Automatic annotation (TrEMBL):
GO terms for molecular function: metal ion binding; monooxygenase activity. It comes from Tabrizicola piscis. Belongs to the fatty acid desaturase type 1 family. AlkB subfamily. Keywords: Cell inner membrane, Cell membrane, Iron, Membrane, Metal-binding, Monooxygenase, Oxidoreductase, Transmembrane, Transmembrane helix. It is a multi-pass membrane protein. Residues 108-315 form the Fatty acid desaturase domain. It comes from the Bacteria. It is found in: Cell inner membrane. This is Alkane 1-monooxygenase. The keyword Cell membrane applies.
Length: 362
């Protein structure tokens, strides 16, 4: 019998699935060869194959589990974040510096590391910026700063969670909107709206220290100076390239996980509260383990402080669910026409009328 997918996965599954690529990437950077192929195939192929070929094996848990503190969960988040902060300069050296890797090996390392930064380090940083402890928040923000995307630490919490599934959220994709147009709008909009929200918040708090955006920009500049010290101008270009690779995956996740979903506006002008029906979810076990339950997105928005191992997968009658693993859905979104055709019948259930003529385009 297939286990109930609403139950959390075993803690060991998260650690194994998310951390295993990191030593493969490290060994690949130092030795090349089979290690790089293993890292690349793990991130690009194995995840999707395991999701499709092996049924979920999560064990039933006590109902009180959702109230647990999950100390091991924070330890895993810290491990992933520190691993990313160490792996990024190593990858830059191996790709742009005098590592002895062949050209093809450098390309493999670029994609393997970039996939891990965007699909594992990002979910870990995302969890950390939701933690109440200042040290954990700062570590999560440091991951985003290293990826030249520090504003995400502000915009995600102060803008996205408040305005999701409404025109006020730059990171909610409209029905019929292609990813590339969305990405430009979301990057600019989240930077501007996050800055506005942080500035407004600081105006209400005395003695709040440096503006967070000053820290984000200074940290990004320091990262690029480190890249310059590691491998000169090629190092800077590779660091920027890896950051853009990771950023594109962050934006793809936002695009897919809220595509076309909208909150109803009441007659008095107020939006309905954020609910389970305002995020797309996936039920695929291995990508959920590797991405620290990021595909259980509805429950995260409904309960932002809930630890990731306790996030629940809503019933298909309660919340939208994609039939594809999240990494595969993100790859499909890179082809706008294919994505619109594929998502249309699933979106129709949650949004009966298309938002624009584009949504009915072949």
């Amino acid at each position: 019998m297939r286990p109930d997918p609403t139950h959390p996965l075993p803690p060991a599954a998260f650690a194994l699935a998310s951390l295993l690529p990191l030593p493969l990437i490290g060994l690949g950077a130092l030795q090349g060869g089979a290690w790089l192929w293993a890292a690349f195939l793990y991130m690009a192929v194995l995840t999707i194959l395991l999701d499709q070929l092996i049924p979920m094996t999560a064990s039933p848990v006590e109902a009180t589990m959702e109230k647990a503190e999950f100390p091991a969960a924070d330890l895993l988040l810290v491990s992933v974040a520190l691993g990313q902060l160490a792996a990024l300069p190593v990858a830059v050296w191996a790709i742009a510096g005098d590592s002895g890797l062949a050209t093809g090996e450098r390309v493999l390392l670029f994609f393997a590391a970039g996939f891990w930064f965007g699909q594992v380090a990002h979910p870990a940083a995302h969890e950390l910026i939701h933690r109440p402890k200042r040290e954990l928040f700062r570590l999560g923000a440091a991951v985003y700063v290293s990826l030249l995307f520090g504003q995400h630490a502000s915009a995600h919490r102060l803008v996205h969670h408040r305005h999701v599934a409404s025109p006020l959220d730059p990171n909610t994709a409209r029905a019929g909107e292609g990813f590339y147009r969305f990405a430009q709008r979301a990057w600019r909009g989240s930077f501007a709206e996050g800055l506005r929200a942080e500035t407004a918040r600081r105006a209400q708090v005395q003695g709040s220290g440096l503006h967070p955006y000053t820290v984000y920009l200074a940290g990004s500049l320091a990262a690029l100076l480190l890249a310059l010290a590691i491998a000169g101008l090629p190092g800077v270009l590779v660091w920027v390239g890896l950051a853009m690779h990771a950023q594109s995956q962050i934006l793809l996740s936002d695009y897919v996980q809220h595509y076309g979903l909208t909150r109803t506006r009441h007659p008095d002008g107020r939006l309905e509260p954020v609910g389970l029906r305002h995020s797309w979810n996936t039920a695929h076990w291995f990508s959920s383990a590797m991405m620290l339950n990021a595909p259980r997105h509805s429950d995260h928005h409904a309960n932002p402080s809930r630890p990731f191992p306790a996030l629940r997968l809503p019933d298909e009658e309660e919340a939208p669910r994609l039939p594809w693993p999240l990494p595969l859905a993100c790859a499909m979104a890179l082809m706008p026409s294919l994505w619109r055709r594929a998502i249309r019948p699933y979106l129709a259930r949650w949004r009966p009328a298309p938002a624009s003529p584009q949504d009915t385009a072949p």
